[in-house]
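Run exodeoxyribonuclease III through structure prediction, thanks.
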Amino acid sequence: MLSEDLALVDGYSSYFSFSRRRSGYSGVATYVKTSSTPFHATEGLCGTLMNDQYFTQPQNGDKCVNEAPAHEPSDQDSLSSQPGILALINVYCPRADPARADRVQFKLAFYRALRLRAALLAQAGARVLIVGDLNTSHTVLDHCDPDEVRSSES
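Sure, done. The structure for exodeoxyribonuclease III is below.
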């Protein structure tokens, strides 16, 4: 649980997104100086978790991910905020378990939704900055558990 003194910092606006299924598991937070408070902030890549009116869900719902399937713990979180012309997307991307094809597909769907969200914000004239934990590594040596990756490849 986040204490009030960490959540509410004097001189800053704060925005949070976290798992609603696993306490203390994952989440993202964005702190912005009060003088730069965004004119708009949403939770979820589709902007629909907080009944957002700014970003409408794409026609093809397959391109948009809001929540993990009901049987999965939610390990994807995102916040979008727009201070001025900068659109900041703060994400905790899902982990893909190499032994479970459905998790790999879910992660790829999340990445597609992230790319779509960023593209739509850019088309609307925003400069887009994606930050957070992308749960992606360039090489096996960049992975938090290289031995696990090596064993799953064999």
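The domain at 4-153 is CATH 3.60.10.10 (Deoxyribonuclease I; Chain A).
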